[in-house]
Design brief:
The chain is of the alpha/beta class. Helix content is about 45%, strand content about 15%.
């Protein structure tokens, strides 16, 4: 399976470079739900760009630097006509705990060390968080904001009262996630979204349209 080959290659290179690397964000959330996509997100200690470049060379992909200041890069792979997009981001802060504290919603503020995930999938025989195996995930996932509980309760909840001030486009992202996953937005979070909606005028048209286009494409976009 190409997915396992990707993970093993990344894990090996990260170990050689003495870097801590974690599955994070929407990919980890969807993996737990049993609906993994082909856009992977990793948070990395140190310079993530050098790791991304080495992974690109090893897997014969295309290396794309996204943000040199914050050290973010992407690797695009197209084996057998399938497109995989892998994003590598350096920790925002000193460690993975700091990085998670800078995220938007609880269901996106979780991390699972790549080596732990590989071991987890080998032991359970499943690449995703199948219902019978989810207790194993709860033991290994870093979940400082109770994101797993919110996933189980199908809830969208902001990790703090300042997430929309930090990035107003998260208001639209919350709506998109609720529509995509069939989750409900926590009343307190919805109130924060309404209070901060005026900040959306500061968001570039391109970023706003990217979120709106996905919302419009959802099967249940009208409600």
């Amino acid at each position: 399976m190409f997915f396992k080959e990707i993970l093993n290659t990344i894990s090996t290179i990260a170990s050689e470079k003495n870097k801590r690397i974690y599955l994070v964000g929407g990919f980890l959330r969807d993996l737990y739900l049993g609906k993994p996509g082909q856009d992977l997100d990793f948070a990395v200690s140190g310079n993530a760009m050098s790791l991304a470049q080495s992974v690109s060379e090893a897997l014969k992909g295309v290396y794309i630097p996204l943000d040199r200041i914050n050290r973010v890069a992407r690797v695009v792979l197209e084996p057998h006509g399938e497109k995989w997009q892998i994003d590598f981001s350096s920790f925002k802060g000193l460690n993975i705990e700091d990085d998670l504290s800078n995220r938007d919603f609880t269901i996106n503020a979780m991390a699972l060390e790549l080596s732990d995930y590989i071991r987890l999938s080998d032991e359970s025989g499943a690449l995703t968080g199948q219902r019978a195996q989810r207790w194993r995930w709860h033991e290994m996932i870093m979940d400082p904001y109770s994101g797993l509980a919110d996933i189980e309760n199908k809830t969208i909840r902001a990790i703090n009262n300042y997430v929309f001030e930090a990035d107003p486009v998260r208001i639209l992202r919350g709506v998109r996630l609720a529509g995509k996953l069939g989750f409900s937005i926590k009343p307190e979070t919805l109130e924060l979204m309404e209070q901060n909606h005026w900040l959306l005028q500061e968001v570039s048209g391109e970023r706003a349209w990217e979120e709106l286009a996905v919302i419009h494409a959802l099967p249940q976009s009208y409600p």
